[in-house]
Amino acid sequence: MRGASLVVLGLGLGLGLGGCKREPKQPDPSSLAELEAEWPPHSAACRSWNDLDISTLDPLPAGAHVEAFDQVWRTVGTKHYDPTLACLDWLGLRAHYGAKVAEAGDDATAAYAAINELLGLLDQSHLHATAPHQAGARTRETGPASVPIALRWLPLEHAVVVVDEAVDGYASGIPRGAIVTSVAGESITQVAEQIVEEVDGRGGRATERAFMIARAINATLSCPSDGSKRIGFLDPQHDDEPSELEIPCFVPEGERLSLGNLRDLPTTVEWRMLSEVPQEKLGYLAFNFWMLPMAPRIQAGIDELREAGMTGLVIDLRGNPGGIGSMSIPIARMLVREGANLGRMQMREFNQEFKVEPNPEAFTGPLAILVDEGTASTSEIFAIGLRDTDRSRFGAGDRGVVIVGAGPSAGMALPSMIESLPDGGLIQYVVGDYHSAKGTAAEGEGVIPDIVVEQTRADFIAGRDPVLDAAVEHLRGPD
């Protein structure tokens, strides 16, 4: 499919309309008020839209973004995993929102607000349209480089805090625990507050809000490879005195890989030994995307740690937004000695099982998986799927797999596609629904940690990582 790319899962899809075709009854635009009497309108007997012949549809009113809207409507209607579309009157909604998009004229912001209002009726992640431009949006200087700091929004403290003052060996000069107030003159607090208002305004989930804030904050740190950005912050080393630094940007190291419209992603795999006390050698593994070419590096890390005598392993998926869903299978196979099932993906016309083949050489020591609001998609599938395999019966003891975090993951675990639209916009749409072997879903509430650890600004100022500390304590077991 030209202009489309699969994210989360590496599945080639060609879903079309099936079943017998019969001419649908077209909604009368004059009766749209009746549609609004019961909002949102639902179809009779929760009909399947598989039998809808889209070639018979009436034309929509003219408008600059109407063609893009109609492509969104058709794409979701024919490729969403649920052919009933949550029992919504998808045909009636076409007329209603087609008129709203036409009324928006050249205003892309208003047109895409209407498009996303329609998509919001399905109440799912990975279902969003992005306008070709945002009227009045701030122009940012972006590029392949980034400011070498890691930031996190702490909602209880209503602040964006530096959680790591250096990245890949590049120091920012801003102390850990500092509250960042601006990036290149743009208010970071305002960026977060706008997302809170947007998500809460449409009844979005708290997990979605946290994920979108993290993504938006990280976007402000992007810059040209030879650029720099002025960062405003409150300095915890000087009683939160306001300060500013012009920080050179750096180009992240690591092999660059592409996934559809996501180009040249810098991939990293890190491993080290956390503890080497006799009889207690705990390993640490972290990687930032799920891309198949990264699997050999992950295998090399696990092998090296095992050769050093590793007895337990921490897998840090904090900030890992996902990638290719099928990569979860070979990584799980490194950790499960007997055959297992990470769950099932329900597609429109078929189901896919995440079956893990037996591996007599797999590592069977206890595992702790770390999550946060940036843990999404394939990371969530892997965490829930591995926990629900009951891995403890494979020789890992009663501490087989535990999830540790300050809160749930993003709750955005559905596989999706990204496709370009006629006006230059983009549509990301859901094509499947995931449940673990035990029926657990990551979509919505996210992966709920087994061990919830409070994290505060004071922890970051002191250089503590209480989530990692709690995982290590668990892996050590009872004294």
Account of the 3D structure:
This protein is of the alpha+beta class and 479 residues long. The chain has 3 domains: 4-130, no CATH class; 145-248, Roll (Pdz3 Domain); 256-476, 2-enoyl-CoA Hydratase, Chain A, domain 1. The protein is built from 11 helices and 25 strands. Helix 2 (66-79) packs antiparallel against helix 3. Mean pLDDT is 84; it is low at 1-36, 134-138 and 392-398.
How are the SSEs ordered, and which strands pair?
Layout lengths: L3 E4 L24 H6 L28 H14 L10 H15 L3 H13 L7 E3 L14 E2 L3 E5 L4 E6 L1 E2 L2 E2 L7 E5 L2 E2 H14 L4 H15 L1 E2 L4 E8 L5 E8 L7 E4 L2 E5 L2 E9 L2 E8 L7 H13 L4 E5 L11 H6 L6 E7 L4 E6 L10 E5 L6 H10 L13 E5 L10 E5 L5 E5 L2 E3 L15 E2 L4 H5 L4 H11 L3
Parallel strand pairs: 16-17, 17-20, 20-21, 21-25
Antiparallel strand pairs: 1-22, 2-23, 3-10, 4-5, 6-7, 8-9, 8-11, 11-12, 13-14, 15-16, 18-19, 18-24, 22-23
How would you briefly describe this protein structure?
The protein is of the alpha+beta class and 479 residues long. It has helices at 32-37, 66-79, 90-104, 108-120, 188-201, 206-220, 295-307, 328-333, 378-387, 457-461, 466-476, and strands spanning 4-7, 128-130, 145-146, 150-154, 159-164, 166-167, 170-171, 179-183, 186-187, 222-223, 228-235, 241-248, 256-259, 262-266, 269-277, 280-287, 312-316, 340-346, 351-356, 367-371, 401-405, 416-420, 426-430, 433-435, 451-452.
